[in-house]
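Worked problem 6 (solution included).
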Amino acid sequence: MPRDLSSVRLSRLNNLVLAFYSTPRMSKREIITRLEYSSDRTFERDLAYLRDEYAVDISYNRNTSQYVFYGRGKFLVSTALTEREVTSMAAGLKMAAHFLPHLEDACTELWGKLKGVLPEDIPEKGEQLALSTVVALPVSFMDSAVFETLFNAIQEKKTVRLRYCSPYGDGAPREHEICPWGMYFRAHAWYLWAWSCSKNSPMTLRIGRISSIVAYGTPPYVEPPENFDVGDYASSAWYGCTGEGIHDVSLKIEPPLAAVVAETTWHPTQKIEENEDGSIILSATVPNLGDVARWVMASAPYAKALEPTELKTQLYELGTSIVNSHS
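Solution. The predicted structure is:
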């Protein structure tokens, strides 16, 4: 065991590493103030101790005058979890098992390990919340090996060759070489945002439709756009079709559905205008009109399109098709 490690100093070292986990870059003054060090010298001794005895990787950046945390080395961090933190973890593990079914056993095992190191009453309350919260949203099937390969390729920045079968067009499987950028869940399925090496443009693929996959190093990996955020890209869709907003849509929603629709953020660009009769005007800028048309059809007879004309035309054609198929 490392020498000269009193309980007071161990607590101080533990708090220092925990502080770096929450804020990986800090100036000396920030650290001294945040952890209430009695002197600069005490902090410097603690830092040297962590580096020498535990190989904790903390470097000093002279350009920014900050200490930068890269890893805890051999130091085992001790932390006391609050009841709310344990409760949120229990609910989160249950949701993870729902949206990633292939990780259900791992989530169960992890929760079992956590229960073994926590006071008995705290995990029990977390389990009660987990049992009372049910996610009824359906999740489409996908191959866990495909998901894991894509996840690793994103982390390692590797090009991927895959076979993809779309239900649209002729339905024939096609080979793609892609540089995966990120994965996201939307509209009951997992999707991949990637760069297509053959089309020289971004593309979106539904992961459940990938039948085979292999990761390798060529052609060179194409980096995602600057200020890349897969969350922003995923939320750009009204339903499933993502991309740049190019269509300004305006919808009128009648009661009683108007109050229900107003409770939800359907798109990050949406604006809602309330009318005296209880109806609302919902407007947004979306990448795909087909998504909105299907949403309006599902919300009939309480929703109707005001703009653009192309959206109203699509709805007319969908409605005509439904009438003909039921006549």
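Discussion: Residues 83-99 form the longest helix (17 residues).
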